[in-house]
Design a protein that fits this description.
By secondary structure, the chain is α/β, with parallel strands linked by helices. The protein contains 7 helices and 9 strands; from the N terminus they run ααβαβααββαβββαββ.
């Protein structure tokens, strides 16, 4: 089963509230995003946003122009159908692989990814991801990436994952990215487990 089929199957056989990465509200992400946007109109891309409720909260909290990118069209449909029609029309929905999808150049003020980067287990995948960030984020833009921490799980949704310290995660992006801050999160899954995440906020120069 290829990756797209895997994630479509996840979102057509389980509710969005049952998957291990579900959060009623992405509080850590929201706090970081609101701080860096400082109330200014901002173009934001939520990578792997899928069925996440982040888009719901962003639409009500500030002047954001939001793109939600996910490999799974089924995941995007979950979020689109959850929003009312007027809200859904305000969002750019994009189904594709973050490492290869065509993204506009020098466009986004904020790049946000919670729980995609750690699925990129091959160096070539990670290099392609970073190249996409460098191409799509405007100079001076903010990059917020959250991945499993050093004590995080070894697998997620039946797939192998990478685990990172803050320095190791920042190191994947390189000198063009200035690490501004990092935070840890103990994520409580719907099934009652606790997963360690590390969040890195960088500015791209």
């Amino acid at each position: 089963m290829d990756s797209r089929a895997h994630w479509d199957r996840v979102y057509t056989t389980r509710s969005a509230q049952e998957v291990s990465w579900y959060q009623p509200h992405a509080e850590q992400s929201l706090a970081l995003i609101e701080r860096v946007s400082a109330g200014r109109p901002s173009r934001l891309i939520d990578v792997g946003g899928g069925a996440s409720t982040l888009v719901d909260d962003l639409l009500t909290r500030g002047p954001f122009e939001v793109t939600v990118l996910d490999l799974s069209a089924a995941a995007l449909d979950v979020a689109r159908q959850r929003l009312d029609a007027a809200q859904a029309r305000r969002v750019h929905w994009l189904a594709g692989d973050v490492t290869s999808v065509a993204l506009p150049a020098n466009t986004y003020d904020i790049w946000h990814d919670r729980a995609v980067f750690h699925f990129l287990t091959e160096p070539a995948q990670r290099a392609a991801y970073v190249a996409q960030v460098r191409r799509a984020v405007r100079p001076g833009g903010h990059v917020i990436v959250a991945a499993f921490g050093p004590d995080g799980p070894l697998q997620c949704s039946g797939l192998p994952v990478m685990r990172y310290s803050a320095d190791a995660l920042h190191g994947e992006f390189g000198a063009a990215f200035e690490l501004v801050e990092h935070k840890a999160e103990a994520h409580h899954t719907p099934g009652g487990a606790i997963q360690q995440f590390v969040y890195c906020h960088c500015i791209m120069h």
